[in-house]
Specification:
Elements lengths: L1 H17 L1 H6 L5 H7 L12 E5 L5 H11 L3 H11 L5 E7 L6 E8 L5 E9 L29 H21 L2 H20 L7 H10 L3 H23 L6 H15 L4 H12 L5
Helix pairs in contact: 3-7, 4-6, 6-9, 7-8, 9-11
Length: 281
């Protein structure tokens, strides 16, 4: 399984790097936004705080259903209220046709002291459909029902994607602003060269950039996604309790982590606890 996993990761890494729009669709790197993010720190106006929901009229009911699912769990409420109650932070949430089945987090803003004071989550109009790949999204993918034995409500899928994006905000807030911005700038340069040189990772320029970053961009991006998947995992472990298909979801979650995210395995075991270990299906 290990050689196959490495092969799959290698191929997917190249595809992801070569298709930046698809990366952005699931909350990854957006070079254009990163340039704007690193341009300068901004000062938050006093009346701009908490969560601003900028939702088109024709998407409001569906969005409310997704939000209700988030708030149906203690973990989801904690994640939501952590920003709704903030007096020094503005989280904007919007719904866009451009994202389709995915979502993304960007428009990060920092104050002069390097403290994150703003971010924007953009949800695709159809995030209640479509399952991301298990290689980088082992937790969200666990909701996929390939065997047809049960159906996952679309609102649960959508709410899990929202929680994943909130995880990106959490992770970014915990990082040093200059380090985050520098990483994004170097990653954008790396990807630009990579797309032009025939996908040659041995290019001296790319080797130098990777050395400066301390890792290849895809590895940094992967780490960010896995950190957000921790939030998705916490949410689903609570939301799935009592559902007839919970064991199926937990089993697929475990299998995905084992096959595609071995370095993530300890975190999974830590969060799942003994209860889910009784599942056998």
């Amino acid at each position: 399984m290990r050689p196959l996993r490495l092969f799959v990761l290698s191929v997917v890494s190249l595809v992801l790097a070569a298709n930046a729009p698809e990366i952005r669709a699931w909350g990854g790197l957006n070079p254009d936004k990163n340039k704007a993010d690193s341009a300068k720190a901004k000062v938050r106006k006093p009346d701009q705080k908490g969560i601003k929901e900028d939702i088109p009229a024709d998407a409001r009911q569906r969005y409310q259903n997704w939000k209700n699912e988030v708030l149906s769990t203690e973990f989801g409420r904690d994640q939501w209220n952590a920003y709704a109650a903030r007096k020094d932070f503005l989280l904007t949430i919007t719904v866009s046709d451009n994202r389709k089945y995915g979502a993304g987090t960007d428009d990060f803003e920092w104050d002069d002291d390097g403290k994150l004071i703003g971010a924007k989550i953009t949800l695709g109009r159809n995030i209640d459909k479509g399952f991301p790949d298990p290689v980088y999204y082992p937790i969200m993918n666990s909701l996929a029902t390939y065997d047809g034995l049960y159906n996952i409500d679309g609102d649960i899928l959508a709410s899990t994607k929202i929680i994943h994006e909130l995880g990106h905000v959490n992770s970014t807030a915990a990082m040093n602003a200059k380090v985050f911005q520098r990483q994004n700038k170097l990653m954008a340069s790396y990807n630009s060269i990579f797309l032009k040189n025939g996908y040659d990772t041995n290019d001296p320029q790319l080797v130098a950039l990777a050395d400066e970053l301390g890792a290849k961009p895809i590895e940094i991006w992967e780490d960010r996604e896995y950190n957000s998947e921790v939030s998705a995992m916490r949410y689903l472990l609570e939301r799935m309790q009592g559902e007839s298909f919970s064991c199926s979801v937990f089993s697929r979650m475990r299998r995905n982590v084992s096959d595609y995210a071995r370095n993530f395995h300890d975190k999974f075991d830590e969060l799942v606890g003994p209860g889910a270990h009784t599942c056998r299906n």
